[in-house]
Amino acid sequence: MRAGIIGVTGYGGLELFRLLSGHPEIKQVFLYSSSKEGTLLSEDAQHIYGYTDQLRSLEQLESDKLDILFSSAPSGVSTKLLPPYIERKMKVIDLAGDYRLKNADAYQKWYGKEAPNSLLVNEAVYGLTEWNKHEIQQAGFIANPGCYPTATLLAVLPLLKEGLIHADSLIIDAKSGMSGAGATPQKASHFAKANDSMSIYKMNKHQHIPEIEQTIQTLANVETNITFNTHLIPMTRGIMATIYADLSKDIQSSDVSEVLHECYGNKPFIRIFKEKADLFTKQVYGSNYCDLTFGIDERTKRITVVSVIDNLVKGAAGQAVQNMNVIFDFDETEGLSQSPLFP
Amino acid sequence: MRAGIIGVTGYGGLELFRLLSGHPEIKQVFLYSSSKEGTLLSEDAQHIYGYTDQLRSLEQLESDKLDILFSSAPSGVSTKLLPPYIERKMKVIDLAGDYRLKNADAYQKWYGKEAPNSLLVNEAVYGLTEWNKHEIQQAGFIANPGCYPTATLLAVLPLLKEGLIHADSLIIDAKSGMSGAGATPQKASHFAKANDSMSIYKMNKHQHIPEIEQTIQTLANVETNITFNTHLIPMTRGIMATIYADLSKDIQSSDVSEVLHECYGNKPFIRIFKEKADLFTKQVYGSNYCDLTFGIDERTKRITVVSVIDNLVKGAAGQAVQNMNVIFDFDETEGLSQSPLFP
Amino acid sequence: MRAGIIGVTGYGGLELFRLLSGHPEIKQVFLYSSSKEGTLLSEDAQHIYGYTDQLRSLEQLESDKLDILFSSAPSGVSTKLLPPYIERKMKVIDLAGDYRLKNADAYQKWYGKEAPNSLLVNEAVYGLTEWNKHEIQQAGFIANPGCYPTATLLAVLPLLKEGLIHADSLIIDAKSGMSGAGATPQKASHFAKANDSMSIYKMNKHQHIPEIEQTIQTLANVETNITFNTHLIPMTRGIMATIYADLSKDIQSSDVSEVLHECYGNKPFIRIFKEKADLFTKQVYGSNYCDLTFGIDERTKRITVVSVIDNLVKGAAGQAVQNMNVIFDFDETEGLSQSPLFP
Amino acid sequence: MRAGIIGVTGYGGLELFRLLSGHPEIKQVFLYSSSKEGTLLSEDAQHIYGYTDQLRSLEQLESDKLDILFSSAPSGVSTKLLPPYIERKMKVIDLAGDYRLKNADAYQKWYGKEAPNSLLVNEAVYGLTEWNKHEIQQAGFIANPGCYPTATLLAVLPLLKEGLIHADSLIIDAKSGMSGAGATPQKASHFAKANDSMSIYKMNKHQHIPEIEQTIQTLANVETNITFNTHLIPMTRGIMATIYADLSKDIQSSDVSEVLHECYGNKPFIRIFKEKADLFTKQVYGSNYCDLTFGIDERTKRITVVSVIDNLVKGAAGQAVQNMNVIFDFDETEGLSQSPLFP
């Protein structure tokens, strides 16, 4: 098989390249760039020094025969670039936010950009693999989930769907490593500023909020508004979502445990830890795992659910490859079975 | 004036030494150690290389004439060591948790240790300077607040006292730098494990929970159970508390702002930032500041309040010195006016 | 094939487990521990949560049928544990320093421990794969190189062997990530001490000095004493060796380049960068690469040679697996072809 | 006294502001910016939130009555900005490299910029306080040393001047925290790239090389070419210089120790540690100290000298304030007596 990557110079794109290069079913990976065509990716990206294929132009993409196209271009770019490929029925997986929100007004409000063609938006299948596998199998075009939504939704959907928690009480305190801010140098990611410090940003206004709410509605059938905050942590990779909710009446620890195991027992990338385990982000570093734990506070009748993922793998490129595996009916773990790197 | 420090080899003790050494009213600082008497503190603590006073024994402490004694020994030790000095009316400031909880059962439950003499516990004044200044002025014995309670209480007390938020809805998601775990090497603070990673620990069972609840009751006159979780962040110093609560009816952003400014407008160490400011912990690094911001989410009628402190300064040694200043009627900022170190 | 690992709870052992678990020729990995037999490795090592094989005892090791045994026990332990397995002609690869130094006096002087059985020492083949492949192919017992020696020797051996530099002028300024200090918590690796700081340690007395000198003599046929210093860097993995030497007469940049390419042109794990490239350790993170660059200073007629490796991979477990591949005549890159993880 | 700072938005400028604000002899600090006049420094620099003086324009500077002007503008800017103030005999301390090199050709070669007015260059006194105090006392215009030269020169000048080492053998392996790269976001200082990694940069071509060589000639009276390399370490502040040299005949450890103590015994900011001490950069964090140790390798007859400084304090703003103290005949430690911040 031959795969293509648009936007390979960003962190999501580099990670796609890493995973696809090691994927047993992929024989060739074509890399596209709108601004750096003709140069070598490895000039900038010294970790793949020795890789000698030149970056291809978007013109070449038009005639290249690809079995699947991944786009890791920034939000707003997919809207412009992807339509022709989707329309000609190329399999396309978009890692940006453009095609995730079904509601055009919501997209414009939260992203501050013009919404893409609504026909294509409707065609897009939301690629939360563990929850949408059937749709993904049939899909030609995948809107790959955001990093925060992946960490959040995998933790709360089982509990919401089974009515264990009150949707209206959901508060998500999310923490992310700095690679989530992208590869472009800027003030907040300047080492001397970010090191040995942590920050809160985009209070109540992160664009992943409507994505989480929409998916809760679609997949757990509950309409709700969530409270959601994001923090930058002085680490490279990793997301931890610490999630708070009021328990429904009479729910016990064993109920939660049962629901989680029933939901995820046979899912290869979800690992359910014992109650109140001290999860840490590095335990999934470089892997496609989403690790979960929870704790019930008898004093307040609230539950804390915790999930950790690698934002660039399960939160981006890894889940995209997992979706490709589903589309082409490969084993779901194909090319994704690397152990987390620890320490 | 002559000050003494018990437990100077820990991080709180070292920070006390730093602040007291630079305090204009303190002429001499005596350092005590139960295990290392006769050695030089600077042998281990290379940053004060050249400081040549030997560590003194606890026997010497009995006869030393001190104007004030700080204890930064671990929880459990103060219970045994401090009674004679409190009883002989020496001014004593204890940085451990031993004398903070008025309820002996609560102490035993949360600390797993035998509670100290209840007469002395009752005598102890809780040293949250901005809120207890009058009592501190009269006090002979101060139980200095914990780091998490300081960050939490300074943020929520004004809102609780004025009825702006529902006490029962309080959820505190707290994050701390690793120095909060103390100076003794252990697994969770091993560099290769902690670096480039973050963790959640003591879910719903941190011993600072009853301290926060007790103080809310005492100072804001509300009885409540809070949800409280703690995380370790790969940074040396700093605490951020991200606090969630349901707003009381019809509360607007301007109400919150007004209450905060009224409460803290003339407090030298509280800085109130504009709404939804991107606070980061390093902005208070090495200083006694507590910086605050908040954001109201109109969609959920919840407020997020955020506070950042340096856990070793405002969260420990700095507040202790501030309390000393109050006791001796010095200017509250004496010896504490250093600017945060940035970057 | 069935492989065994002694000392799997250390960082070298965990990395061996990671690599062997993903190795296509290894069907089973048996894990041994002298102190934790019967427990689960994954209890401590959350990144492999779900791995359910119990740690086996050293008694079981005696009767287990293994094709190869890796030992990642600390220095001193191999001396006691390994002899029976070497003697019964099991293939053994030791990652500790015990069997590296041919001279018993040198071992005692630099390690401060009793030297192992000299017959076995003589039997041991030094596993610097790129330089000793022929001997390794025949070997039954491999003394796997230290992390610093690997980084140093791969950089200097070609230049010494071809006489491009003066051996007596060799100065090696080595820097290592903190995982090199092992998995046991201690003062120097305590996060609050090590973070945001770097240190020099063991000035002129690191036990890797005689290993480097002995190998220079064996493989480049030059007797010399080197100057060698080591630094701890606030990062988890990675070694950079910055190496200084006086150039032999009339040596040009092109001579050095030619020698390096001739020596390593067909070696899969050595990547030669252009002159004076800005190498960084993370470009080899998690991989078995050793990346090299050099710069000639015309003003001083000295050369700087720089190498970077991942201390736990090429500097330990990766090279051990590479040696296993050579012994069993597998492709040298089998199980080691993972791309570095960046960022 | 009233001090002015040009270029206060950079890290050197912010540190000058921190130190001058706490300096007992400075009553007022005026801040100048060519691009941000009229705005508040504290808008960007949240650590000084509450500081309400607006940034002043360079036009205002022309008429402001200052006792001393510090310039922390980037190299190249001082050349253009400072001449009028120097000429009107205002006391000026320049933290940039423009006026450090006496040789215009050297400046152009190493900085790639046009050299400043040679009359003013000649007037500039090199502000290495411990070595040039007499000249500084008389000076009207100070070229404040670079960070690497400060760490290097303080370590080697005593040994060179007393003939203990061979100047031609000098090799300096320097390591710096990322704040040395300035406050402007760029690739090499992007957190996700720099974190958990270290790099070598500007091999043999750092612009501080001629500054070190010139000063060795001026102050130790030896002409030499040095080998000098620089590395970026994932920490915010701190420089360690690991310096190698061949010992002169018959020099013993005691000779070195004696020379260092004689040279620096009464210097308040130089701390001489015992031989082969494990220095770490954080032991001087936030302070004006330069800490030194050394080790002699009997096997190679070479010495290793190690120095650590805080690059923003002793390596920039701190030394500038120290020079101001000398010029105005204040105590040398005035405003600089803060203890290092540890941990």
Automatic annotation (TrEMBL), chains A, B, C, D:
Domain Semialdehyde dehydrogenase NAD-binding: start-end pairs: 2-139
Gene Ontology MF, one: N-acetyl-gamma-glutamyl-phosphate reductase activity
Compartments where located: Cytoplasm
Protein name, per record: N-acetyl-gamma-glutamyl-phosphate reductase
EC number: 1.2.1.38
Family membership: Belongs to the NAGSA dehydrogenase family. Type 1 subfamily.
Function: Catalyzes the NADPH-dependent reduction of N-acetyl-5-glutamyl phosphate to yield N-acetyl-L-glutamate 5-semialdehyde.
SMART domains: Semialdhyde_dh
Catalytic EC class: oxidoreductase
Catalytic residues identified in the record: 147
Record's keyword terms, sorted: Amino-acid biosynthesis, Arginine biosynthesis, Cytoplasm, NADP, Oxidoreductase
Pfam family, one: Semialdhyde_dhC_1
SUPFAM superfamilies in the cross-refs: Glyceraldehyde-3-phosphate dehydrogenase-like, C-terminal domain (SSF55347), NAD(P)-binding Rossmann-fold domains (SSF51735)
Native species: Fictibacillus barbaricus
Pathway noted in the entry: Amino-acid biosynthesis; L-arginine biosynthesis; N(2)-acetyl-L-ornithine from L-glutamate: step 3/4
Predominant cellular place of this UniProt entry's protein: cytoplasm
